[in-house]
Design goal:
- With 136 residues, the chain is mainly α.
- The protein has one domain.
- Helices cover 58% and strands 0% of the residues.
- Helix 1 packs antiparallel against helix 6.
- The two termini are 30 Å apart.
């Protein structure tokens, strides 16, 4: 028996999965370290999940990614976010930009390992943004 569920949410999830795979392939082709890439993608998925489940404020992660910025800085901003998520609020620097200060501490080891952020291009930033928007 074939499942023919064509719900809008299923279609969004399928499209987001395709975009995720496409972004993964582009970063791998750009010679981004494979271990770092896998961990980076898991962390991105967690951030999307955190928005859906109210761990983060509504669209908090999406707003951070889509803010006007140069493409090469997107990876650095995401890396800073990963470090912030691994720090208790009272242990963070006082001069963090407000958009980073508002993220909660995420207990656990997901954000503990330091990884080199990917160097994003305009194309890979666009794919990341499209993936994020397709999860809503």
């Amino acid at each position: 028996m074939e499942n023919t569920d064509e719900s809008p949410q299923l279609q969004l999830n399928l499209e987001a999965s395709r975009l995720l795979a496409d972004l993964h392939e582009d970063l791998l082709t750009d010679n981004y370290d494979e271990h770092h890439l896998e961990l980076f993608m898991v962390r991105i998925l967690f951030c999307l999940y955190a928005e859906d489940t109210a761990i983060f404020k509504p669209q908090q992660f999406k707003k951070l990614i889509e803010k006007p910025n140069e493409s090469f800085r997107v990876g650095e901003d995401i890396q800073l976010l990963f470090r912030v998520l691994d720090q208790k609020e009272e242990d963070r620097q006082n001069n963090l930009p407000p958009e980073f200060q508002e993220f909660p501490y995420v207990n656990g080891a997901l954000f503990t390992e330091h990884i080199t952020p990917p160097m994003f291009t305009d194309t890979t930033v666009e794919k990341l943004i499209r993936m994020i928007f397709h999860t809503y």
